[in-house]
């Protein structure tokens, strides 16, 4: 035996998957792979053989929660490495550009959110500009997929066209399939496609509700018919192809047969699935507002209470984030106080506090918000002819959007809101209004005390065990949890020194420094510029966090990543203290795609230094773009440990906590 | 299976003669008398010898550190078995004995020591068995009382040897596993208790079989023609290698010497008996031989929450060398060794001290590092073979969270 054989190859299949992992491969994936591999490396061959050809243009991004709701187990499965390569190539190809999103209606939203993370940059635009494609929804998709199977393709579509009853629209969507196939077989025939879009667009515009309903019914019927026929036909069809091309077809045959059986089964379950799909869609968090999306921004503006003027020179890379002139909203909002009758005064107050920066810090903001909601619920009266559960949810949502206008929500606040809404939704119907309100108020109180205050106590208890005599502890900025830890350790009589690293423009560390020195701790204060110098003498780094994401990324004050990186490079353990309610199931790889932008003027102006404030005349220059990021993302590699209310866990265990916590979430 | 049998003693005697005949300098270190005798192991380690940690002593007793006085002791034991029994009995901790004599008919420590006499039984399994007996012989009449009793027993076991990670972890896990059952749903206390006993037995059984399961699970990773580097003496690793040898796999093993306990010698001895080709290395030759090695196999004293392991001194450096040469490091550890600890660095755990014998007198001004074990961070480990399956280091925390939360 070759002793140099790499043992890793032996390992891979044996690893037990625990926690989150990709869904197990489809049963048919094994057979489909050979086809796709056979087709993709040799494009000319693909032109000739229809079987190989059927795959490449119809690139369907897999729906994220796949399983049986997926209409047809597409010939590509998510785990296939091939898909990644073929998607970009497909999207450069005109028809698939149009079709890729259209063919997966269920996936379109999840796909959009995937684009933020994955590498499907080009096709993401299509998802938005989809309206004609959406008309082709479910039914035609099925038709397209099944017709794209070898052999049966052409006969099938003809058959379907004949079997479809009346409605002109349905025939449009079904008859449209042949061009696609033609394109697949022959290459790009753009005119045809244009025809088709032209066909579709007016059709879409003039439909009324009833018509659309009829259309749906018809499509459904057509689909069922097609399937019944198709399952008979396809068997014969594929055998016909066998004679043409032996090698790839072997896989296709079994695959298509399987597909048939699955799709037939799926049609039975479809209604149930659709409901489940709806539920799941609710579960999936809404994609964030992208501020470079003009139409949505305009819409949001019309609803907005706070008048915000957009910053003049927006930073190009961060156009998707709100960039407003700071300092203009507060007086404006104050003057509106008597007009905003739909916002509860307590919420209004908190909003103003956010806006002016009086309340900052994840926990403080969250507590303030929850208490304001508590007040609002206390004063709430269900309007006549309305349901408490629904009306209150709507109310809370309007408060939340008001707060967002004042300052973008932190992830912890998002979690708290989600908690509150789920509590409202789960209120028993039998409760009277006053009981329901009392219940909700006690829920809010419990959330604050258990998830925030008690959690902090537990974190302190755990973290103190990691402080030894003679330690030099470094902290960055001002974190309430870290402050409590340091004070508690001091109370226990541990001998240690604290290094507070701070940064412009907020200089939050100074407040922390003042409080710690007041309690008699030994402190060193420095700015982040000196962190690489000071790190040599540090034995532990304690950091707070705004949120911890599912891949272990810590989302925190800008500068944290820098401190963690330096600590990692010098082998100083980095401990992140974060309550579990701030954990979030999102995954974020950089700090660009989601962040908050502060006042750009804050970084250009140095108070008390007239000589440095020479930016003033440049402020109107188009060449100057000031960027004041609030948060950054620290990769999990730099983090030795996360201290939460569930104990000390490695960053790899965040998904476990999220999972367990979610369950508990429902219990409370 | 290894017993403290005459054959082994004879083997050792044989080797001792060999060593003695060759005038290597190491032979000196075999012979110097060591005053902390084997009998200490059965004493309460906390009270007996403050200089050497209990961890080291129990390890010495269990893993049979090859020292001359151990041999003498063992020989004596073979000569007069009843006497040995008698001599070890009275050395049961005085406090425990006092507790057992008056009112209480039962004492955990006694029970624990009884179980511990089975050389093949891991310390934690002995503790688990002893705790199971606690439940069985308990006279409690309510669930709460029983739980308190169990808690007390496990506390006394834990305080018996505070440095042993597996003992602490085993006790905790047992309590967790047993009391976590929905015993409350039983109206009747007796049926609830029998349910607890059932679970306790089951846990004991699982723990007892763990070693076999690990051996089976890890067979896929040993391929024909591979070279395995082993550090220290671990019964699990021995079991793994033994199973592989029995299934006619062809592999060779490099054993480190494992100074100062020379546990590697023991392992190589055992493997030679199985006709596995073995090569002994001195501990400092690890990097030298690493390019020939296909995988590193180590046991663990404890698996911590980060997924790293705490093991005999030297494991960390071997893992570092293996990591830098891209060789996989496999850890074989039973799941009762999973501990809720999270050391951040080497000094971040309770040190387990041991005597180190350099063969020559050391001037008193010279300081000696006497820690018996080190911590290997998870990024240097490839996989953990446990009775829960083959795990990546990050899953350890997953399992622990599920067990404890």
Summarize the structure.
Chain A has 668 residues and is an alpha/beta fold. Helix content of chain A is 55%, strand content 7%. In chain A, strands 3-2-1-4-7-10-11 form a seven-stranded mixed sheet, with helices on both faces. A four-stranded mixed sheet of chain A has the order 8-5-6-9, sandwiched between helices.
Please tell me about this protein's structure:
The complex is a heterodimer of chains A (668) and B (405). With 668 residues, chain A is of the alpha/beta class. In chain A, 55% of the residues lie in helices and 7% in strands. In chain A, helix 2 crosses helix 16, helix 20 (362-378) runs antiparallel to helix 23 and helix 23 crosses helix 24 (480-491). The two termini of chain A are 59 Å apart. The model of chain A is unreliable at 1-205 and 231-269 (pLDDT under 50). Helix content of chain B is 49%, strand content 10%. Chain B contains 17 helices and 10 strands. In chain B, the strands form 2 sheets. A 7-stranded mixed beta sheet of chain B has the order 3-2-1-4-7-9-10, with helices on both faces. In chain B, strands 5-6-8 form a 3-stranded antiparallel beta sheet. In chain B, strand 2, helix 14 (263-273) and strand 3 (278-281) form a beta-alpha-beta unit. Chain B is globular and about 65 Å long. In chain B, 44% of the residues are buried. Chains A and B meet through helix 1, strand 11 and helix 29 of A and strand 10 and helix 17 of B.
Main beta sheet strand tally, sense and closure of chain A? 7 strands, mixed
| Number of helical elements of chain A | 29
Rg from alpha-carbon coordinates of chain A: 29 Å
Question: Which strand order do you get reading across the main beta sheet of chain B?
Answer: 3-2-1-4-7-9-10
Strand fraction of chain B equals 5-15%
Question: How would you classify the helix and strand content of chain A by structural class?
Answer: alpha/beta
- The helicity of chain B comes to 40-55%
What is the count of helical runs of chain B?
17
Count of extended strands of chain A: 11
């Amino acid at each position: 035996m070759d002793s140099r054989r790499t043992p890793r190859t032996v390992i891979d299949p044996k690893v037990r998957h625990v926690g989150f992992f990709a869904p197990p491969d489809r049963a048919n994936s094994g057979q489909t792979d050979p086809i796709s591999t056979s087709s993709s490396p040799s494009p000319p061959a693909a032109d000739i053989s229809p079987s190989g050809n059927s795959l490449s243009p119809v690139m369907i991004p897999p729906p994220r929660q796949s399983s049986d709701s997926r209409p047809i187990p597409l010939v590509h499965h998510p785990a296939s490495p091939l898909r990644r390569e073929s998607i970009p190539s497909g999207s450069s190809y005109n028809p698939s550009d149009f079709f890729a999103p259209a063919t997966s209606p269920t996936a379109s939203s999840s796909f959009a959110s995937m684009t933020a993370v994955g590498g499907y940059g080009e096709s993401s635009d299509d998802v938005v500009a989809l309206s004609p494609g959406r008309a082709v929804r479910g039914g035609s998709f099925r038709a397209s997929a099944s017709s794209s199977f070898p052999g049966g393709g052409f006969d099938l579509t003809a058959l379907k066209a004949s079997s479809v009853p009346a409605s002109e629209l349905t025939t449009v969507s079904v008859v449209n399939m042949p061009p696609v196939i033609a394109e697949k077989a022959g290459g790009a025939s753009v005119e045809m496609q244009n025809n088709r879009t032209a066909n579709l667009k007016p059709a879409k515009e003039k439909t009324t509700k009833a018509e659309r309903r009829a259309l749906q019914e018809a499509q459904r019927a057509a689909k069922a018919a097609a399937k019944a026929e198709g399952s008979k036909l396809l068997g014969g069809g594929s055998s016909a192809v066998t004679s043409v091309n032996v090698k790839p077809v072997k896989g296709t045959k079994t695959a298509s047969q399987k597909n048939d059986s699955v799709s037939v089964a799926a049609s039975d379950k479809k209604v149930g699935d659709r409901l489940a799909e709806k539920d799941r869609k609710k579960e999936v968090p809404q994609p964030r507002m992208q501020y470079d999306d003009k139409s949505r921004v305009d819409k949001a503006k019309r609803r907005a209470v706070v008048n915000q003027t957009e910053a003049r020179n927006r930073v190009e890379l961060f156009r998707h984030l709100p960039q407003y002139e700071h300092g203009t909203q507060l007086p404006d909002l104050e003057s509106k106080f008597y007009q905003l009758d739909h916002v509860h005064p307590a919420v209004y107050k908190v909003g103003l506090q956010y806006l002016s920066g009086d309340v900052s810090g994840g926990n403080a903001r969250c507590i303030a918000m929850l208490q304001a909601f508590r007040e609002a619920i206390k004063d709430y009266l269900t309007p006549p002819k309305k349901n408490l559960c629904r009306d209150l949810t709507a109310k809370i949502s309007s408060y939340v959007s008001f707060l967002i206008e004042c300052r973008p929500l932190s992830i912890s606040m998002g979690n708290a809101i989600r908690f509150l809404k789920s509590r409202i939704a789960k209120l028993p119907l039998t409760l009277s209004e006053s009981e329901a309100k009392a219940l909700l108020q006690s829920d809010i109180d419990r959330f604050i005390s258990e998830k925030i205050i008690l959690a902090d106590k537990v974190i302190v208890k755990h973290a103190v065990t990691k402080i030894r005599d003679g330690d030099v502890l470094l902290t960055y900025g001002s974190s309430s949890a870290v402050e409590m830890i340091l004070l508690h350790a001091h109370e226990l009589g541990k001998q240690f020194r604290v290094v507070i690293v701070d940064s412009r423009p907020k200089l939050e560390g100074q407040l922390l420094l003042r409080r710690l020195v007041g309690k008699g701790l030994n402190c060193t204060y420095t700015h982040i510029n000196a962190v690489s110098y000071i790190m040599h003498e540090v034995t532990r780094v304690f950091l707070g966090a705004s949120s911890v994401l599912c891949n272990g990324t810590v989302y925190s004050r800008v500068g944290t990543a820098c401190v963690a990186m330096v600590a990692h490079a010098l082998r100083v353990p980095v401990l992140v203290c974060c309550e579990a309610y701030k954990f979030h199931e999102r995954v974020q790889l950089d700090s660009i795609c989601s962040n908050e932008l502060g006042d750009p003027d804050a970084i250009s102006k140095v108070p008390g230094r007239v000589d440095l404030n020479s930016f003033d005349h440049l402020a109107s220059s188009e060449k100057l773009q000031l960027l004041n990021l609030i948060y950054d993302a620290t990769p999990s590699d730099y983090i030795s440990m996360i201290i939460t209310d569930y104990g000390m866990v490695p960053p790899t265990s965040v998904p476990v906590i999220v999972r367990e916590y979610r369950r508990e979430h429902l219990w409370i | 299976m290894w017993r403290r049998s005459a054959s082994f003693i004879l083997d050792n005697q044989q080797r001792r003669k060999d060593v003695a005949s060759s005038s290597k300098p190491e032979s000196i270190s075999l012979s110097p008398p060591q005053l902390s005798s084997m009998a200490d192991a059965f004493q309460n380690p906390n009270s007996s010898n403050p200089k050497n940690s209990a961890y080291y002593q129990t390890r010495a007793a269990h893993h049979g550190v090859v020292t001359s006085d151990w041999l003498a002791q063992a020989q004596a034991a073979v000569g007069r078995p009843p006497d040995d029994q008698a001599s070890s009995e009275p050395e049961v901790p005085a406090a425990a004995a006092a507790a057992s004599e008056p009112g209480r008919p039962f004492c955990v420590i006694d029970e624990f020591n009884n179980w511990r006499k089975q050389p093949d039984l891991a310390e934690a399994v002995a503790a688990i068995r002893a705790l199971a007996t606690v439940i069985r012989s308990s006279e409690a009449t309510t669930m709460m009382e029983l739980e308190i009793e169990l808690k007390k027993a496990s506390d006394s076991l834990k305080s018996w040897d505070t440095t042993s990670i597996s003992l602490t972890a085993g006790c905790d896990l047992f309590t967790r596993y047993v009391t976590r059952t929905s015993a409350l749903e039983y109206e009747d206390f007796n049926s609830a208790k029998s349910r607890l006993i059932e679970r306790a037995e089951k846990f004991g059984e699982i723990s007892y079989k763990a070693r076999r399961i690990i051996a089976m699970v890890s067979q896929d990773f040993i391929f024909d023609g591979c070279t395995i580097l082993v550090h220290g003496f671990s019964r699990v690793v021995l079991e793994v290698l033994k199973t592989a040898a029995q299934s006619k796999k062809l592999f060779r093993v490099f054993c480190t010497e494992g100074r100062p306990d020379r546990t590697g010698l023991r392992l190589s001895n055992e493997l030679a008996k199985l006709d596995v080709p073995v090569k002994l290395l001195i501990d400092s030759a690890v990097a030298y031989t690493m390019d020939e090695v296909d995988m590193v196999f180590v046991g663990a004293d404890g698996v911590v929450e980060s997924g790293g392991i705490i093991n005999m001194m030297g494991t960390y450096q071997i893992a570092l060398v293996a990591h830098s040469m891209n060789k996989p490091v496999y850890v074989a550890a039973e799941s009762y060794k999973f501990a809720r600890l999270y050391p951040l660095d080497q000094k971040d755990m309770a040190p387990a001290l041991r005597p180190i014998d350099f063969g020559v007198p050391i001037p008193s001004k010279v300081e000696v590092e006497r820690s018996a074990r080190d911590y290997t961070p998870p990024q240097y480990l490839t996989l953990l073979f446990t009775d829960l399956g083959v795990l990546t280091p990050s899953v350890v925390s997953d399992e622990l969270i599920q067990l404890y939360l």
